[in-house]
Design a protein that fits this description.
The structure is a homodimer.
Chain A: H1 8-15, E1 22-23, E2 30-35, H2 39-56, E3 61-65, E4 68-73, H3 83-97
Antiparallel strand pairs in A: 1-2, 2-4, 3-4
Helix pairs in contact in A: 2-3
Protein name (chains A, B): Putative pterin-4-alpha-carbinolamine dehydratase
Organism (chains A, B): Mycoplana azooxidifex
Keywords (chains A, B): Lyase
Chain lengths: 99, 99
């Protein structure tokens, strides 16, 4: 399904419904830095998030070091943020809450 | 177990036994960029590598986007590269070969 790039207005109002996510300065991605108790918890989060990414066929850019996972979501084919990014962000929030 | 920082000479000869790893410019970490066929393969590699990291109690800094995993290994407590980094690098090579 072709995804349309969302307007900054829609992105801003959608971000208001999520905790700790922000629009990056370049305006083409949303990002969050997650913090867990241990590496094992951080990686368990990543495992659940990876499954959601496969289901959505939409994948994160992410960096992990020990208990920290920095996530950046963008839709390359649309050149910006789409509804898919928010669906993956929501799945990640759910995965993080389970830790 | 306290790990001693390895000399550049030892690091260089150890790197020669691994494929595609290099010493970073700052001299305190070894790094490799892995490439897989799909996100699923890349994440399966990460899952096996994460288990090795837990066994060694030594963890990577790594970045993933789709089929690519950039890894950086260093031993913070030693301020450089130690034998632990090479043990984790070898475990990662084994995990990558299984994909």
């Amino acid at each position: 399904m072709k995804q349309d790039k969302l307007s900054t207005e829609v992105i801003t109002s959608s971000l208001a419904m999520l905790e700790g996510w922000k629009l990056e300065d370049d305006g083409v991605a949303i990002a969050k830095s997650f913090r867990f108790k241990t590496f094992a918890s951080a990686f368990a989060f990543m495992t659940e998030a990876a499954q959601a990414a496969e289901r959505l066929n939409h994948h994160p850019e992410w960096f992990n070091v020990y208990d920290k996972v920095d996530v950046r979501l963008t839709t390359h084919s649309a050149g910006g943020v789409t509804a898919l990014d928010f669906r993956l962000a929501e799945a990640m929030e759910k995965a993080a809450r389970a830790r």
